[in-house]
Amino acid sequence: MVHPTVAVLERHLCLYRRLWRASVFSSFILPVLFLVSIGIGVGGYVGGIGGVDYLSWIVPGVLASTAFQMAVGESTYSVLGDFKWTRGYHAMRATPVGIRDMVAGWLLYILLRVEIAVVVFLVVTGLFGALRSPWAVVTPLVAGLVAVAAAAPVTAFAASVEHDSYFALLFRFVMIPSTLFAGVFFPVEQLPEAVRPLAYASPLWHGVELCRAATLGAAPPWPVAAHVVCLLVFAAAGLVWAGAAFRKRLQD
């Protein structure tokens, strides 16, 4: 008999098989176009940062932000929809599938989606010659950790709200500022000192710094273990919150 977590994953994959065409542009083509336009186009005017050409410097940032944005975006309407509109989670609850299986199966689905997109992006950037260290092979692991660190709390949030209008606030005041000020496009050190702690509090910044250290073969600003622990804390807190939110929602 298939494990309940695997059954949940299979369910999401079956649904995605019918909808994958709609995500091709945002998951695969858009990051590459963004890389070409900003990394090469704008990079021609920027020059280099820290002795590295702008294309090589921005690649790990775009890679981590792709994982972050996919995780956040996928964990909003889809989760709320399965509670409020299609009631997919209620149907699962009537089976041997438990709360942990629902959350774990969903996060495995997000992880699989992100890893495929990140590997494709990594191959393309490698063809551009933007990877300067063999440690770049560990960036999919970092991107996966970023995805779980972002998807777990957002999944919990989506399971806690009653209306999708809250997602516009999430995108506007969390996802977009995190993308702009987490070191993706310019060093966080260029921000005012009073604002930098907000960047450090974002899981994206930790993912960007780890990916940049891997692709450039340079040490990150914090110890690697510190970055990893911060991401694990986000993931663990999100998992606990998601479990509680799913349990409460399915009891109502």
Automatic annotation (TrEMBL):
The chain crosses the membrane at residues 19-42, 54-72, 106-131, 137-159, 166-188, 224-246. Its main location: membrane. It is found in: Cell membrane; Membrane. Keywords: Antibiotic resistance, Cell membrane, Membrane, Transmembrane, Transmembrane helix, Transport. Residues 22-249 form the ABC transmembrane type-2 domain. The keyword Membrane applies. The keyword Transmembrane applies. Pfam families: ABC2_membrane. It comes from the Bacteria. PROSITE patterns: ABC_TM2 (PS51012). InterPro entries: ABC2_TM (IPR013525), ABC2_TM_bact-type (IPR047817), ABC_2_transport (IPR000412), Nod_factor_ABC_transporter (IPR051784). It is a multi-pass membrane protein. Belongs to the ABC-2 integral membrane protein family. This is Transport permease protein. It comes from Planomonospora corallina.
